[in-house]
Amino acid sequence: MDAVRARGTVEVRPLAAEDLDVVEQMLARYPGKHRERLQGQRKGECVYLIAWDGDEPVGHLNLRVRGRKLPDRARRLRAAQIEDLRVSRAHRRRGVATELMQRAAEAAQAHGFRRIGLGVDVDNAPARGLYRQEGYEESGLGRFVVSYPYIDEDGAERQAHETCTYLVKQLA
User: Fold this and answer.
1) pLDDT tens, 77-124?
2) Cα–Cα dist 19/4, whole Å
3) What is the pTM of this model?
4) For residue 46, which of 60, 73, 113, 130 sits 20 to 30 Å off, Cα-Cα?
C-alpha cells in the first residue's frame, strides 16, 4: 500500500519495522500493542496504518482482515474491522482521522471486502458524527459492551468500559 498525504501535510502508511521504536515512544498505547499489530500485519491478519507529520507519528488505525481476533460481528457481516482509531490531540480536526479511515477502506477493498465495520461507544457523539459523514450506518446487530485497558495521552493506565453499537459501510 502506497503512502498518502492528508490535506497535504500528513502521510499515511502501514507501520514498518524500522518505525516501531518511534511509534512506541510517541503514540501511547498499552505496552506491546504496536509490536503485536506489526506482527499481525506480517501474518496478513491486519493492516496497521500510521499517520505521520514529517518524522512524527500523529495517529493510527488498525484494520483487522482475518485471524482469531476478527470479531464475530465482522465475520457475520463479512466485513473488515476498524479498530483503535486515534489521533494525537494536536492533530485533531485536520483530516487525519478521515484520511486514516479512507485508507482503511481502500485496504479492505484490496483484501476483497465489500463492507467495513467498527464498534463505537453509543455516547461518543464526535466519533459517531465522523463515521456518519464517512458513510457508516447502524448494522442492526444491537448493542454490546467492551472493556479494555489502555494508556492515555498523559501516560496513565486506564480501564475503558463502553456500551457500543456496530456500524458498517458498504464499499464500492
Assistant:
1) 999 999 999 999 888 888 999 999 999 999 999 999 999 999 999 999
2) 17
3) 0.88
4) 130
Q: Which amino acid is at 13?
A: R
Cα separation values, 35 from 20, 80, 110, Å: 7, 21, 23
Nearest of 49, 99, 42, 104 to residue 79 by alpha carbon: 104
Position 2 pLDDT exceeds 50: no
Interacting residues of 27 by C-beta distance below 8 A, sequence separation 6+: 34, 50, 57, 58, 59, 60, 86, 88
CA atoms lying within 13 Å on the CB side of residue 94: 20
Q: Are strands 10-14 and 4-6 parallel, antiparallel or unpaired?
A: antiparallel
State the pLDDT at residue 120.
96
